[in-house]
Amino acid sequence: MIIKIEQGTKYYEKNAVLRDINFTLEQGERVTILGKSGSGKTTFLKILAGLIAFDKVKYEKSDVKIAYISQKPVLFSHMTVLENVVFPLKCQKIARKQREAMGRIFLEKSQLDKFTDMYPYELSGGQQQRVSVARALISEPDLLLMDEPFSSLDVRLGREMRQWVFSQIEDLHIAAVFVTHHYEEAKVFSKRILLMEEGTLTHATETEIDAFFGDGMSLEGVYYPLEDWRLTDEGVPVHVENCLVLYGQRYWSVILESTGEQKFIIAGDETIDLGGKAAIAPVRREHNA
């Protein structure tokens, strides 16, 4: 176990923003935290990162290497993109040639290799965030804290970065705590999903997750939760990306033609050509209408 928190409480101006937090995290474990703005999620991540402290707590924490990706990129304005990315390696006394070679690899994976010698002020907000993500991963941390890191990226790039980051976490067996408002991110990232409400942290049930996201889609003026949708011959047009298994259940990863959004649709026994066009529709239309 790398983190164990019991009865953690944090005050701001005598108001409790975190109340009686109980939380544990094992090495390599992934946890997702949901919650409305102002519920205490960012404060909790900052405490895990060591940036601020609980006012009252019983806290056990292993000596682990931590990386933190905030909602907004925080870069050194006087450093180039490459210098920003390799800064953690410089702190680890890794030789300049070696760290720069590693940095160029990570910039290429982040689609930032064209901006190696540029400065943060010359980049867009999304590009700056990609630099932050690359910098967090390059040092192979034991614990990665992510506060909605993909929210400033466009749909396509956000999906590609998300898949790359999640694969790095899996391959390197990194423990991670992930704050998101994105349904697919939450479902794909971890089995363990927690809900932060008014400073309290609890296990999120499937009903609470669905209620939080209000996830699903409407067809002909009727709203259906995502679990009701399947691949069909007619319905909402999609492109089928691939088939994957999450928590023992097969899903189709599909992209909505109309918006470019990614959805995970429960898969049955059907077969389909990946990359091809298809459609999805709710299987309980007659039941819900």
Going by helix content, strand content and strand pairing, the class is: alpha/beta
How many domains?
Answer: 2
Oligomer: single chain
Q: N- to C-terminal separation?
A: 49 Å
CATH architecture of the largest domain: 3-Layer(aba) Sandwich
What is the string of helix and strand elements? EEEHEEHHHEHEHEEHEEEEEEEH
GO molecular function: ATP binding; ATP hydrolysis activity
InterPro entries: AAA+_ATPase (IPR003593), ABC_SmlMolc_Importer (IPR050093), ABC_transporter-like_ATP-bd (IPR003439), ABC_transporter-like_CS (IPR017871), P-loop_NTPase (IPR027417)
Keywords: ATP-binding, Nucleotide-binding, Transport
Domain ABC transporter: 3-223
Helix/strand layout:
Blueprint: E1 3-12, E2 15-25, E3 30-35, H1 41-49, E4 56-61, E5 66-69, H2 81-91, H3 96-109, H4 125-138, E6 143-147, H5 155-171, E7 175-179, H6 183-189, E8 192-197, E9 200-203, H7 206-213, E10 217-219, E11 222-224, E12 229-232, E13 236-246, E14 249-256, E15 262-266, E16 277-282, H8 285-288
Helix pairs in contact: 2-3, 2-4, 3-4
